[in-house]
Every structure is written in C-alpha cells, then in structure tokens.
Write a structure and sequence with these properties.
Elements: E1 3-5, E2 16-18, E3 27-29, E4 32-35, E5 38-41, H1 51-55, H2 64-87, H3 91-97, H4 103-112, E6 119-125, E7 136-139, E8 146-147, E9 156-157, H5 158-162, E10 169-175, E11 181-186, E12 199-205, E13 208-213, E14 217-223, E15 231-232, E16 246-250, E17 255-256, E18 262-263, H6 276-284, H7 296-309, E19 327-329, E20 340-344, H8 345-348, E21 356-361, E22 363-365, E23 368-370, E24 382-392, E25 397-402, E26 413-414, E27 420-421, E28 423-428, E29 444-445, E30 456-458, E31 461-463, E32 468-470, E33 474-479, E34 482-487, H9 498-504, E35 506-511, E36 518-525, E37 532-537, E38 548-550, E39 557-559, E40 562-563, E41 578-579, E42 591-592
Parallel strand pairs: 32-42, 38-41
Antiparallel strand pairs: 1-2, 3-4, 4-5, 6-7, 6-14, 8-9, 10-11, 10-12, 12-16, 13-14, 13-15, 17-18, 19-28, 20-25, 21-24, 21-28, 22-23, 24-25, 26-27, 29-30, 30-31, 32-40, 33-34, 33-39, 34-35, 36-37, 36-38, 40-41
C-alpha cells in the first residue's frame, strides 16, 4: 500500500493514511496540496473538490466520490487524535512538532487552540472615594488566588497555573520598522539564544482590555477574546492596526551585549547613564524600529499587577530593589593591591552575593570629601562587578570578593593637597536576570519580595533593579496649568527637539500640578496607547497608589518620564512612581532603560 500524508487548513498535521494501492501519493502542505507540481487551495477541513484533479489520484478503479469520502474521513480521524496530543504538549514541543513553514503560524495555532473567552477583571477604587490600595476581583478573576514566589518558596498563582492567557515563555524577538516585536525563536528550540546579537523577551498570547470609568472606581477587564467594548492591548497591535496573536515585551533592562549594542539579555550589567535623548541614538543603532522601551512596558506591569494582585500598590506585593543603598569605606587599609574588599562583618551582612557594587574613592566637594556615585572617582577601581562570595577575614572583619580580575589598593587617596579619601565600596543597580531564579514561571523576587533588596518580575518581565526606567515615548511638557503628557505613537520617530516633539507627538492627557513632591492617588492606564499618567494626588505608602511623584510643581518645559525609582527610595518607589523634573538630555548613574 502507498502512504498518503494528510493536511488541513490551519494545520499541517503529519501522519500517514494507508490508502489503496491504486492511490497515487499525496503530499499535503499548509493551505495547499502538492501533487506532481500541481497546487490547489484546500477548503476548510477538506481536500480539493475538483473532479479532474482527483482523477489524477486514481487509476479509475475507485469512484472519485468514494475516494474523496474515504480520505476526508481519514483526515477527520487523524486530526482529532493529533489535535488532542498537540493540545497536551508544552509550547516548545508543540512548535517543534508543528510542520509549518513559519514559526509565527505555529505560535498562532498554539494560541488559537487555547483561547477560552473568559474574562478577568478588577475594581480599583478612586482615591477621593476610597483611599485603600486594595481592589476587588471581578468576573473569572474572582475565583483566582495569588501570592508571589521566590527561589525557595512557591506562592500560589492561579493565573499562571490555570489560565492559558497568562502562560508566558521566553523568546528571541526582532522589531518591525514600527517598533512591534516579532518572535524568531522560543526557549527550548535549538536556535534560541541568550547571548550574542539577540534580544530576549517574554511572550504570552495577545489579549484585549476594557476600561470602565465609574464615579467611585475604575474597572479593568482582560480577555483572550475580543468581546464588545474591548480593545487589543497596544503591544499586540501594529501601527497599521493589524492585531497579532502574541504579546511580547523585553524581559530585562538593557545592557551592552557582545555585539556592543543595547540588548535585553540575562546576566548583563545594566547600561546606566541613559536619558530620553541618548536612547534615541543608542537604540537606533539596532534598526529603524528600535527606540527603547516605551511607557507600555511599565503600563503592562501595572495592568497585570491590578488583575493578579487586586491592589493599586506594587509594593504591597513586591518591594523591588528600593532599600539597598550602602557605601562603606575599607575597614583595612592596604597599600598593596588586593582582590577583595575588606568590611566589618556587620557591614558585609547587609550585602547580597550576586548583587552589583563599584569600588573607588571620593572627590572634593566644597572643601569636603564627596561620595556621590555620579562622580567617576567613585568607580575608579571597579565600575560594576557582582559579589561572588563573602568570607571571614578574622573575628571581626570579612572579605567581599567580586567577579573581576581587577586588584586595587585600599589605602586612602589624596584628592587635594589637604584632603584624603577612603576607598569605598558602593552598591549599584542589579545586573539583569536574577528573577530567572524564581520558581517556574511565577512572579516574584529571587530571595525576598519584602526586604527591599532584590528586583522582581511579573509575567516574565523584570522590574525595579535599583535604577530609573525611562519611558522612551513619553515626554512631560510642564506648564503652570498642568503637565501635558505627550506620546510618540507607534511608528512615529522620536525626537530630542521640543518644537518637533510638540508638533509630532500626541497629547494624551494632563497631569495636575500640586505643591512639592506628592503621594500618587490615582493614575490612568490607556490600553490603546500604552501610556500611563497621574490623575490625582493624595495618600501615603499604604493609601492611593502607595508611591510618590517628585517635582510636582515649579517646573516649566519638557521633562523625562523617569519611572519606578532607585536604590534608596524605599516606600516612595513603585510601579506608579514618577520623577517629573529632569530635562530630556540629563543622565546619571541610576538612569536605566529597556528595549
């Protein structure tokens, strides 16, 4: 007997059908049948109906109608069995087994089989009506339980465990000219990489959002299906309106990869000293669609935070690296170069193996020794290195070892004729990828979600590494009447010129002006633009959004969108923290960005 390879629209399911000897061989491919060079579109679930074409497949001994019926029945039986098997496989196994001509079609098929149409919602109270940070789960989310995880302890995340829409996977991606991310390899595939000239993202199925603005609250709903009143999340939509089957965001803040470009990869030192303006130059080296992460990367985290935790405050669940600012002078002064940094045991106990530090000495500042990390002296010996181990030196002191071949003296350094500075070890923002140690695909922090020392991830994306995270596509235009929020829509060139920004960006809202630094009461999250901005002030670390806004008055002109906070902000930091008073070209040691 000959073998017949069967196929159907939407899938190319490999398998053999034992046909009669009189049948000629059929090679089925996506949407087409190839037989002796001929091609014909495949109707949904069936082989071609053209009688002349079917006559090519038989010597006439079997009626065409009988042949067609027999083959179609075989297709149906085979597809039922194969779809059952495919539906039970994990993502990578499915894609590897899927004989499609493109990875994108395989991903589309995988997600299509898992969409449920269920709705997950939350009610977030407006500060003026109810200052609590806690919200109320709605629709199918009401049945969910959520608690974050660490490397050692698994919390409970019903969204990850039970809902296909929240299942995510690491991918390599590229960006189209309009900035939309497109997958090129999935973790577990032979061509997936975490080093070299690649970016690593977190991908889940595309989803739709509905926002209901009530007098006392705002309700957010997400679903894997477009119900009435729902709009596709901005990261799933191209500039021309095409809705993609996936949602991809950079998994990590950017570091310099081996190709000397800014990349989203694990285990890279975060490239600091970023600004709104230099991001344009730095990311455009990668191609037309690269500008650096826009506000949507943070808005995505806020939306997922709302749905999964039912809480306005990110720090109610994950503290992030917001209380890890230490600067210690060498406890032992050595004129000879050594390969470790000496501290007291009490000081060393505050440090975490795996975290990032710098080593250098102070500078003259108004007749005294200054130790602000923005001065190059403070990282003269070691700019950024990870702690590899901490060992006892003696009964009272400890040695801090780093992943660097550099050696250094710890003797005081003369910085003027009259001033000497000790040699200092200073903590720095974390390198990328520590959250990969969190159990499975759960959200959370490596060591602790509450100690304020470690970054956290949500839905595969890493946040709060101890530095600002700049939104590349948002600019504040500060005026006496309010701060206009200007957005560069997807596909729009970013600019460092105020006149161009004001003429080509889109005004999406106005932040209110308040006296001095303020607690954040409410924010607006727009699923179509991906932008977020503050709509009301008020509260405390345990009320409203639980975060702070810096520079909420006295500003005039364009300003950077500096999000989330840094090493020592403590309870002021979080997903809705915003610094409003830094001009577009300013950069510093705690200014980072994502792709």
């Amino acid at each position: 007997m000959s073998k017949v390879n069967l196929g159907r629209v939407g899938f190319v399911l490999k398998g053999d059908y034992d046909a009669k000897a009189s049948y000629k061989k059929l090679d089925c491919v996506k949407y087409n049948l190839n037989s002796y060079g001929a091609k014909q579109d495949v109707p949904a679930g069936k082989l071609p109906t053209d009688t002349t074409y079917w006559m090519q497949l038989t010597d006439g001994a079997t009626p065409v109608a009988e042949l067609r019926t027999e083959v179609n029945n075989a297709i149906k039986a085979q597809n039922t069995e194969i779809e059952k098997k495919l539906d039970e496989t994990d993502f990578t196994a499915f894609v590897n087994a899927y004989p499609s001509t493109t990875l994108e079609k395989a991903i589309e098929a995988y997600y299509a089989m898992r969409r449920t149409g269920k709705i997950y919602g939350v009610k977030i109270y407006k500060f003026a009506s109810n200052p609590t940070t806690a919200g109320v789960r709605l629709e199918d989310a009401a049945e969910m339980t959520y608690a974050p995880s660490t490397e050692a302890t698994a919390g409970q995340d019903d969204f990850i465990d039970k809902v296909p829409m929240f299942d995510w996977v690491h991918v390599n991606y590229i960006r189209d000219d309009d900035g939309t991310a497109r997958p090129i390899a999935i973790e577990g595939m032979s061509d997936y990489k975490t080093t070299g000239a690649v970016d690593v993202g977190a991908m889940q199925m595309s989803f739709y959002v509905k926002v209901v603005d009530n007098a006392d609250s705002i309700e957010y709903y997400v679903s894997d299906t477009q119900h009435e009143g729902y709009t596709p999340w901005c990261e799933c939509v191209k500039a021309d309106g095409t809705v993609l089957p996936w949602c991809i965001g950079s998994a990590y803040l950017s570091g310099i990869a081996s190709d000397k470009l800014l990349r989203s990869q694990p285990n890279l030192m975060i490239e600091l000293w970023q600004s709104h303006n230099n991001m344009i130059t730095n990311y455009q080296k990668k191609g037309a669609g690269y500008w650096g992460a826009g506000a949507a990367r943070n808005s995505f985290a806020i939306l997922m935070q709302y749905i999964k935790t039912a809480n306005k405050s990110s720090q109610a669940t994950w503290a992030g690296c917001t209380n890890y600012s230490y600067q210690y002078p060498a406890v032992v002064e050595s004129a000879e170069a050594i390969s470790y940094f000496p501290l007291t045991k009490a000081q060393a106990a505050n440090l975490i193996v795996g975290s990032t530090v710098s080593i250098g000495y102070g500078y003259e500042s108004n007749g005294t020794v200054g130790i602000d990390r923005n001065n190059a002296n403070m990282y003269k010996y070691v700019q950024q290195a990870r702690i590899t181990k901490i060992e006892d030196l003696d009964d009272t002191n400890a040695a801090v070892y780093l992943d660097t071949d550099a050696t250094f003296t710890t003797a005081k350094v003369s910085i003027t004729d009259t001033l000497q500075s000790p040699v200092y070890l200073s903590t720095y923002p974390w390198a990328s990828g520590t959250t990969d140690k969190v159990i499975g695909k759960y959200d959370g922090s490596w060591l602790s979600n509450t100690n304020g020392k470690t970054p956290y991830r949500i839905q595969g994306r890493e946040y709060n590494l101890g530095c600002y995270e700049i939104a590349s596509d948002l600019v504040l235009d500060c005026k006496e009447t309010g701060y206009e929020v200007l957005l560069a829509p997807k596909g729009t060139a970013h600019s460092n010129a105020d006149a161009t920004i004001r003429s080509t960006y889109t005004k999406i809202g106005t932040m209110p002006v308040a006296s001095g630094d303020q607690q954040v009461g409410d924010i607006d999250v727009n699923p179509t633009t991906g932008a977020w901005y503050i709509t009301a002030y008020g509260g405390s670390a345990t009320q409203g959004m639980g975060d702070r806004c810096y520079g909420a008055s006295g500003q005039n002109g364009t300003r950077e969108y500096l999000q989330r906070g840094y090493l020592w902000l403590g309870s002021a930091a979080g997903s809705s923290f915003l610094n409003c008073w830094i001009w577009l070209g300013w950069s510093d040691w705690y200014f980072g960005a994502g792709d």
